[in-house]
Amino acid sequence: MQNSKAFFGIVSFLLIIITFEPVHALTLEYSTTAEALAEVGWHDYFSYYSDGDHDSKEATNTRSYTTAFYDKIQFMGEVGMSALAEASVEPNEVILSTRINGSYYFDIGWVLMDYFYQDANSTVNGWLQINEFPVGAPCRLQVDISFPNTTWTGGSLWQFYMESSLEYFLAGRDALGDYGTLSGTIDAYAGEPVFVFLGIAGGGYADHTIETIGSGTLTINTALKAIPHRADFNADGWINFKDFALFSLNWHQRSCNDPNTNWCRQADLDHSGVVDANDLDLFTQYWLLFSDPNQIQ
Predict the structure, then answer these.
(1) Confidence (pTM)
(2) Contact call for residues 248 and 267 (beta carbons, < 8 A)
(3) Is the CB of residue 224 less than 8 Å from the CB of residue 126?
(4) Which one of 106, 109, 127, 286 is CB 3.0 to 4.6 Å from 193, fit for a cystine?
(5) For residues 113 and 137, what is the distance between their CA atoms, to the nearest angstrom?
(6) Closest Cα to residue 231, out of 188, 185, 269?
(7) Residue 267 belongs to what H/E stretch?
């Protein structure tokens, strides 16, 4: 056993030539849309009235912001909506952001209201690339979705979707409730276009007997970070003999689920607590899976 460990150690030392920490730069070509609608209907002693305001904006590689607002002295009130869609690109992170904001206020005109309606939606979608790894190298995108504020009192639907040539990530909320997870990873090839989409819609209808919609703000941010693939132990953009050397240094290690070991320096690929033949089988699958850079579409 000692001879076996010594052999693995010598092989590992010979194979690990250099180590470095690359900068995981991201690029994003995207478009944004924002649309807002505010509409009211009211009556007086003589007749029934309706009016509203609507606006929409579209932009490429910049923010879209729009507002819709309606205010009439006849009913002493106001209805307003706004929508924002934007993205920011840093050297190692992309943040997609959508927001809806609504307000309504009625004074003595509340009794004259027949209905008011508010609706807003905003979307960011485009193509993301990881361009610091060699083209075709295996890597991952870390996804973290957050809600900086959730004071919006009306109904809302939202979705985040991202798809590479290998897999997809989906999260959101529909009429049945929340689905998916707010954090996770997706595998991708460096250099390939990865589709991303973040959209949110909110609004609804109310009359003077029901106050259910139109107040507060809802913002959704999605942060995307490039990280090495989990089998790329030295983070050089390739899964090769250098990674095998690092893997072999942890061969037959146990108690890998101890937080201090980081899954035995990530060699415990299946998170079983032991670096064994199952992890070696996974490592081999990843190696073969990413062996052909020409798979990039």
Answers:
(1) 0.76
(2) no
(3) no
(4) 127
(5) 61
(6) 269
(7) none
Higher pLDDT, 259 or 12: 259
Q: What is the DSSP letter of 137?
A: -
Chain Cα centroid distance, residue 60: 19
pLDDT, position 114: 82
User: 205 φ, ψ to 5°?
Assistant: -120, 145
Cα distance between residue 182 and residue 13, in whole Å: 40
pLDDT confidence tier of residue 14, bands split at 50, 70 and 90: very low
> Distance between alpha carbon 256 and the CA centroid of its chain, in Å?
30
Burial category of 265 from C-beta neighbours within 10 Å (exposed 0-12, middle 13-18, buried 19 and up): middle
- pLDDT tens digits for 88-106? 998 789 999 999 999 887 7
Strands, DSSP E only, in the chain? 26-43, 48-60, 64-72, 77-90, 93-106, 113-130, 138-146, 155-163, 168-174, 177-180, 183-189, 194-206, 216-228
